[in-house]
Amino acid sequence: MDENKPPEEPTPAPIPEPTPEPQAAAPAPAPTPQPSAGFIPPNAQSGGPVPFAGPPDSSIPQEERTQALLTWVLMFVIGFVSPLVFFFVAKDKPFVKHHAATGLTMVIVGIGLGVVMFILAFILALAGPLALLVFPLWGLISLCFLAIIIMGAISGNAGFRFDPPLIGKLRDSIFKA
Questions:
Q1: CB 73: neighbour CB atoms within 10 A?
Q2: Is there a domain that residue 149 lies in?
Q3: Sign of torsion over alpha carbons 117, 104, 159, 68
Q4: DSSP secondary structure string, 105-149?
Q5: What total number of domains does the chain contain?
C-alpha cells in the first residue's frame, strides 16, 4: 500500500428509497336502506299523512284545525247540521270553510246516492228478490263515506286541505270554495 495515497473510503451504500406506507382503506359508506313498500326516506317530500291532501300550512292556528276536525267528527252525531253551521260561522276562516264545504258536498252526494239506491231497490223489488242486491252495495258506499269522513277529520286536525277525488271537484263547482 502506498502511504502517500489516502486510504480509499468505502463507497457508501445506496440509501434505500422509502417505500410508501400502505394507506388504510377508506371506510366503506354505511349501506343506505333501499326504498321498499311503505318506506319513505327521511329527506323525501311527502304529500301528507292522508291521500289527496296538500302540504300542511303551518300558519293555520290550532283553533281552526280543531274546528275543521269538529266539522267532520260531528257529522256522525248531527249529520249535515255540523258542516252547515261551520260553513256559515267560519266566513272569515277559509281553512274551516273549505272543510265545511267538503262535508256539505259529501252530504249532498250521500243524499243523492240514497235516493238513487231507494229507486233502484224499488224497481228491483218488482222483479223479485233482486232488491236484496242493493243492500251490500249500499253498505260498501257507506264504508267509503266513513273512510272519507275519517280521512277528512285527520287532515283537518293536521292542517291539510282535504280534497277527495270526485267530491273536491263537485265542491268547487257548488260552493266556489
A1: 16
A2: yes
A3: negative
A4: HHHHHHHHHHHHHHHHHHHHHHTSGGGGGHHHHHHHHHHHHHHHH
A5: 1
Within a domain: 102: yes
Q: Which residues form the domain of 116?
A: 62-175
Cell of 151: 280521512
Distance between CA atoms of 95 and 161, rounded to whole angstroms? 7
First to last CA, the chain: 118
| 167 domain residue, yes or no | yes
The three grid cell numbers given for residue 159, joined into one nine-digit string? 292542517
Our CA dihedral for 100, 102, 108, 113, rounded to 10 degrees, sits at -140
Burial of 111 (0-12, 13-18, 19+ CB in 10 A): exposed
Decide if 108 contacts 174 (C-beta within 8 A). yes
**What string of pLDDT tens digits covers the 177 residues of the chain?**
556 666 666 666 667 676 666 565 555 555 555 544 444 444 445 444 545 455 667 788 889 999 999 999 998 888 889 999 999 998 899 999 999 999 999 999 989 998 998 888 888 888 777 777 788 888 898 899 999 999 999 988 888 888 887 887 888 888 875
- Whether 121 is covered by a domain: the verdict is yes
